[in-house]
Structures are given as structure tokens and as C-alpha cells.
Predict the 3D structure of the following.
Amino acid sequence: MTKQGVDPATRTLELLWERIAAPTRGPKPTLTLDEIVGAAIEIADRDGLGDLSMRRVAEALGFTTMSLYRYLPGKEELVELMRDKAVGRPPAHRRDASWRAALQRWARADLEVHLKHPWLLEVEIRRPPFGPNHLAWLDAGLAAIEPLSLDPLVMLNTVLAVDSYVRGAARIRVGTSAEQRRSRATRQELARLYAGIFEQIVTDERYPALAKIVTAGVFDPAEKPIDEFEFGLDRVLDGVAAFVEP
């Protein structure tokens, strides 16, 4: 609880579900909460979450920083609103699809969202997301595996496990892309560099198992490399299938 006795989570919940009326004090509002959140997302997409501030959002909109506080308490609540707006709505659930195909489609769309808005991976997750869009994503994931008739707790944890895998894969892709931009090198050029480093430092004596992988040329750039995301996703779903049909 805050000093004023208002739980920040409750305040954020009200904002997410538009339960707070427009400001009544002062001049007639010329901004909307949606405009504020949209401007903040544009800044975060371009410069990252670390460079986001209430001041920068206000400047982008042509208003004073203090004017934004008529609409929301501060940056923490703003980021929660940004998260929910950025993820948007999930892909429509196809009831004729198998559970596996449906969950694959859900996971791929989840990846696309995180690659489009990399700053989502910077957000510290302190509590479950309560926004309408986040809940729609969770509902869609659960609907995908509903035909499996799993225990409710198992259903929830299965969807969360897939989402955790997606976020991890997205973090690697975002990091790799950032390194390519920083070094001005292509993915193949970086792969050759890393392969050469591994060949220099990995020996049979110190890392016998890893040395076999390096010797096999796994780290060498290939014309048609394996799609790491799809490979990992398939293995995660294989695990779900094995759990359902041991």
C-alpha cells in the first residue's frame, strides 16, 4: 500500500480497464490516455525502455510533463499500459486446428510481438498482467490446448512454459540483432567470427563434449541453418505431447 492507502496494482487495474473518469480539474482535457500511451510506445520502440520518461513523452506530444500526471500517476503505470497496448490482440483461435498447430500459431505470433517491441523484454514482471489484451492472449493459449482436457493448473503452466520459451528465444534474437547493428556485421560474418573463437579456446582436454560439437562445424555459418526457434518450439511441444500421452 502507498502512503495514501492506494495499492499501485489497483490503480493500474483501473487505468487498464478505463475505470477512471477523465480529469475534472483545470482546463478541458486536450489529451487522451491512449494518445499518451501511443507516444510512449513510439519512444520505447525507437530508443528502448531505458530512455523513456514522462518528460520525453510530454515533449513528443507538445505538452508539459506535469500535464501528464492528470491522466496517470507515473512511469510505472504508463509502462503497464504500454505493455497491454503493444501486445495487441492474439490471433483468432481456429477450432478446426489441432492443439499443436494452434499452440504453434500462438507462439509464433507471441514471438512477432516481442520482436516488434523489444522493450517488452526489459519490463520487470512483478505481478500477473491484468490488461484486457494480455488476458486475451492467455485465454487464446488456453483455448489452444483445451482439447487435451488437462488439469486446469497444468493447462495454465503449459501455456506459461511456452510463453517463457518464446520470451527467451526473442531475447536471443533481439540481442543478436543489436550486436549486428553495433558491429555493422552480417549474421554470417559474426557466425564465422564466433566459430573461429571457439576453435581457438575449446580443447578436448578442457571441454571434451563441447569440442566434439565445435569439430563437427556446428558453429560454422551454413547456407540453410536450422531455425533455432522452430526447433526449440517443436521440442517444447513434444514434451507436452509426451506428458499427455506417456
Q: What stands out?
A: The two ends are 47 Å apart (CA to CA).
